[in-house]
Amino acid sequence: MGGSVRVLSTLALKGAVMRLAQTYQAASGVAISADFAPTLALLARLRGGEVADLVILTREGLDEMIGEDRVAAENAVDLARSYVGLAVKAGAAHLDIATEAALRTALLGARAVAYSRLGASGILFAQLIGRLGIADAINARAVIIPQGFTAEKLVSGEADLAVQQISELKQVDGIEVIGPIPLALQTPAIFSAGRMTASQHHDAADHLLRYLSSADVAPVLRETGLEP
Prior knowledge:
This protein is α/β, with parallel strands linked by helices. The chain has ten helices and ten strands.
């Protein structure tokens, strides 16, 4: 087939896409040229006229792009389910976060919590601490980043708890994932992919879509913190 496919992907799939790229190129002859950012940032770039062959966004974000005729509806596919989790610096104690009460205690006891302003995880977390009635207390000492990996703030010592999609937490060395926020307190994010209508490489983009949604990639998704 040859050539390359340009992919714009949410950060949650970065680990999986980067691990799969070499295998895919060896099998197909097509290189994956990928750029990663939070879904909200990608939506703004796409609406600003940026073009790729294939996009990976939250299901809601992809549906918006389909509704605006930027992404083809006929072969859009759900790739993975993702949960928001908490992490600490490697070697630090793993706090109990198994229940709502335990999570509340852990968050209030943290010196600083790092979370993202733009990502799906940050939006969920902001809503969660509001429901728990601890938003003011947490935000008074939170490290809120515009985008990127919150766990980097654990390594730098700026925070002692980081909140993000588990697949994103796992992108950072020197940290340990405690586990997910109690599942009763969150709705999993669904990440989906589709071909842009403006793509000049329809066949290559469609081939990559079929590969990403195949059973062959399921082990890599799981290893990087996602559920196929």
